[in-house]
Write a structure and sequence with these properties.
The protein has a two-stranded antiparallel sheet with strand order 1-2. It has a domain of 97 residues. The protein is mainly α.
């Protein structure tokens, strides 16, 4: 696709690599997740979190999301695709649970975006472009 400018020059519209798209969705999800956690903690400022399960699960989910960004960009393609078909579904379940317990409008707002990014990750991993076997054999 290209777009013609007034001077006659044409803007190039390069196709974005699927790895970069999925990594960007992970980054968006992670940033929103972090924002939601910070907002929740700020509202409960006078009530410190003492539940050891939450104190273990919250950082673990953050670490997994950060690692998924790096793995999506650098890992072997077959494993990256498989991981991005499985891990976002696990987070989707977390996010549906978050929406089920939502009590305020911003919970629904953030939850909707959590779900959107999870669905986009799975969708792009599912639709990952396949290389034609005959093209692969000719290049080697």
């Amino acid at each position: 696709m290209s777009s013609k400018m007034q001077s006659g020059a044409v803007l190039e519209d390069p196709k974005v690599n699927v790895r970069i798209l999925i990594a960007a969705f992970w980054i968006c999800h992670f940033l929103l997740w972090t924002f939601g956690d910070m907002l929740s903690l700020l509202q409960q400022e006078n009530e410190p979190i003492e539940d050891s399960v939450i104190l273990m699960v919250a950082p673990t989910t953050a670490v997994v999301q950060a690692l998924m960004v790096v793995f999506t960009l650098m890992g072997p393609v077959m494993y990256v695709r498989l991981a991005n078909l499985i891990v976002p579904i696990v987070y989707l379940l977390f996010n549906i649970g978050f929406l089920a317990e939502a009590t305020e409008a911003w919970h629904y707002y953030l939850g909707g975006f959590y779900v959107l990014f999870n669905v986009l990750m799975v969708w792009f991993a599912w639709k990952w472009p396949m290389e034609d076997a005959s093209t692969e054999q000719q290049s080697s």
